[in-house]
Amino acid sequence: MDDPELEAIRQKRMQELMAAQGGGGGMDPEAQAQKADQQRAQEEQRANMLASVLSPQARERLARIALVKPDKARKVEDMVIGMAQKGKIQERVSEDQLIHWLEQINEQTQTKTKVQICRRRSAFDDEDDD
C-alpha cells in the first residue's frame, strides 16, 4: 500500500522536522557547518582567554562548578573575561579570588523565601471568654 502522495507528504514533513531540529530554519548544510565552526572558534577563543587569566587551581575549580551548575560557571566566566578585557585584572586570578567572586554571585542570585501561614478559622474555633 505505497501511496506516492502519502510518501511525498511524509518526506516533506521529515525535512521540515529536520530543519526545525537543527535550528537552522531551512539553512543549507554549508551554512550550518559554517555557523558551527564559528561557534567552535568562539568557544576556543573563550577557553584560551580563561586559561591565560586563571591560575590552574582556579580553572580546575571553575570546571568542577560547571559540571554541577553550568549557568553559574558561565556567569563567572563572563565576569572574568569582561574584567580581563577592561584591564581590571593585572595578574592571574587565584583560586581564593575566584571563591570570593563566587560568593558575591551567590549573594546576588540567592532568593529569599518567606513562608506565611494563614490559619483559617472555622465555626468550631470560637474563642469564648468564659
Automatic annotation (TrEMBL):
SUPFAM superfamilies per UniProt: Double-stranded DNA-binding domain
Basic and acidic residues: compositionally biased ranges: 37-46
Domain of life of the native organism: Eukaryota
Sequence similarity: Belongs to the PDCD5 family.
GO cellular component, one term: nucleus
Gene3D superfamilies xrefs: PDCD5-like (1.10.8.140)
Record-given protein name: Programmed cell death protein 5
GO-annotated molecular function: DNA binding
Chain intervals for the UniProt region annotation (Disordered): 16-46
